[in-house]
Amino acid sequence: MPNIVLFSGSSHQDLSQRVADRLGLELGKVVTKKFSNQETSVEIGESVRGEDVYIIQSGCGEINDNLMELLIMINACKIASSSRVTAVIPCFPYARQDKKDKGFFDIPVDNLYAEPAVLQWIRENITEWRNCIIVSPDAGGAKRVTSIADRLNVEFALIHKERKKANEVDRMVLVGDVKDRVAILVDDMADTCGTICHAADKLLSAGATKVYAILTHGIFSGPAISRINNAAFEAVVVTNTIPQEDKMKHCSKIQVIDISMILAEAIRRTHNGESVSYLFSHVPL
């Protein structure tokens, strides 16, 4: 594609390379380092004058450093006279605090969805998917699971966390019938994995035959890996918005859905001025 330059930040080089390969592009030359006082320095190693620039940087690892690196890269490309700079952020930092909807942006933002890739994985990897039930580990994810259940034409359930009084341990109440079914827990992210592991126990005690977890962003901090290893999951499936190679070495249950083709197609469509809404319901071939 003419007049396009693709850069990778340091947070997730593997995903950036996959996107570049999909687009048939070379990643642009960029050197990131730190001064002795720990300030981030970025050197763009090629001309971006008049180019349509895309910078891939995920909100993982050293989140604050990576976010600052992204901002410096954007600024470097802007002052080098690029025609347009687009940040491609597979995992949006600080989204857990729900600031993403509260006036951070006065520029266009496209929110991409993992749902089409999740549906494809379920159909291709769970042989009993027609007898499955989609489960949200909390009431807040009800909209997410109903959408997936509707697309698969199966039923859904949710787990409601009840608090009787302050400082008392939550009680999990399952709303829905999972008996003799494959239960698929779906959530947007998992950090320490306490909720989904408790939810898995709840589903098995309610008669589910197998339990899978499918999560968009697998943060897996603190005791997460040991909890997953001790839980009764058939598999814990995440996208590669966050690097998972090290986690997979310590947990055989983790499986990864590659979403590089979704990002690549979004970049191609944005560059060519096409709609990206196709990606809300389809996985590009």
From TrEMBL:
Pfam families: Pribosyl_synth (PF14572), Pribosyltran_N (PF13793). Keywords: ATP-binding, Kinase, Magnesium, Metal-binding, Nucleotide biosynthesis, Nucleotide-binding, Transferase. SUPFAM superfamilies: PRTase-like. Its EC number is 2.7.6.1. Belongs to the ribose-phosphate pyrophosphokinase family. It catalyses: D-ribose 5-phosphate + ATP = 5-phospho-alpha-D-ribose 1-diphosphate + AMP + H(+). Pathway: Metabolic intermediate biosynthesis; 5-phospho-alpha-D-ribose 1-diphosphate biosynthesis; 5-phospho-alpha-D-ribose 1-diphosphate from D-ribose 5-phosphate (route I): step 1/1. The keyword Transcription regulation does not apply. GO terms for cellular component: cytoplasm; ribose phosphate diphosphokinase complex. The gene is Prps2. The lineage of its organism: Eukaryota, Metazoa, Chordata, Craniata, Vertebrata. GO terms for molecular function: ATP binding; kinase activity; magnesium ion binding; ribose phosphate diphosphokinase activity. This is ribose-phosphate diphosphokinase.
